[in-house]
Amino acid sequence: MKPGIKFDDGRFDRAKLGFVLLSSEQTVESDMMRWAPEGVGVHFTRALNPDQITVETLGAMADSLAPAAAVLAPNADLDVICYACTSGSVVMGEDLVCRQLQAGNPTAKATTLVSGVFAALDALGTKRVVVGTPYLDDINRIEADYMIAKGYDVVDLQGLNITNDSDMVRVTPDYIRDFAISLDRPEAEAIFISCGALRTIDVVEQIEAATGKPCVTSNQAMLWHCLRLAGIDDRFDGLGRLAREH
User: Fold this and answer.
1) 243 falls within a domain
2) Same domain assignment for residues 190 and 228
3) Residue 143 pLDDT greater than 90, yes or no
4) Are 110 and 98 in contact (CB under 8 A)?
5) How far is CA 24 from CA 29, 53, 82, 152, in A?
6) Residue 43 maps to a domain
7) How many domains does one find in the chain?
8) Is residue 74 part of a domain?
9) Which residues have a Cβ under 8 Å from the Cβ of 206 and sit 6 or more positions away?
10) CA distances from 163 to 108, 148, 234 (A)
11) Are residues 28 and 71 in the same domain?
């Protein structure tokens, strides 16, 4: 190395977040890059999966998480590493996912997308929720049972019964907005729209304005939670009450 070279802390001097994505994923990267605060780096790797999102394909990803985590910016000193799939997190379970992530990247704090959702609901002080998903019915049953076991009252859960990830990414934000609003029930305290592939982040403010209730979305909650785990406490507009107030 040539003597006298000047170094600083690089472009991302506040925090560095790592995300393990499905190989079919098309939404998470752009959401994270769009909304990450200045000075916070977002880094990505992918774990192989087919386009079909089923209980079987999600569960089969377990062995691929550690190798994927191991090649995720290995010399960047990541603060947090997150598995960026809601349905996969509940099918495999948060504990298993975090063990696999830590096996591949032991110095970063390991978490999952659905862990961020639960942290978001708790920060908002909400337990009674309605849930909308793009998933098949068997995945929906697993997610509802998982949330109930965590102490949440799932007032209603409705799915769109979409199989392919490549179709989930094409559901229009306007449709997602109207779908979310239709789910609302008087007894519900919050609306949760599940799935990192859905572009819910684009309409979260509209959903909250129409219902008067907080709306938690997968990618909104994931970014918020990863920032908090990394010690970044910025509040900002555009991502609903969660990012603005907590």
Assistant:
1) no
2) no
3) yes
4) yes
5) 12, 10, 17, 30
6) yes
7) 2
8) yes
9) 177
10) 33, 24, 36
11) yes
* 245 occurs within a structural domain: no
- Tell me: pLDDT of 1 over 90: no
Count of other CB atoms within 10 angstroms of residue 52: 14
DSSP H or E run through 123 = helix 113-123
If asked whether residues 93 and 131 sit together in one domain, one would say no
Q: How many CB atoms lie within 10 A of CB 96?
A: 15
Place of tokens 């995945």: 139
Domain that holds residue 105: 15-114+221-233
Q: Average pLDDT, stretch 36-57?
A: 97
Q: What is the pLDDT of residues 83-133, one digit of tens each?
A: 999 999 999 999 999 999 999 999 999 999 999 999 999 999 999 999 999
pLDDT per residue over 209-233, tens digit each?
999 999 999 999 999 999 999 999 9
Residues 182, 212 within the same domain? yes
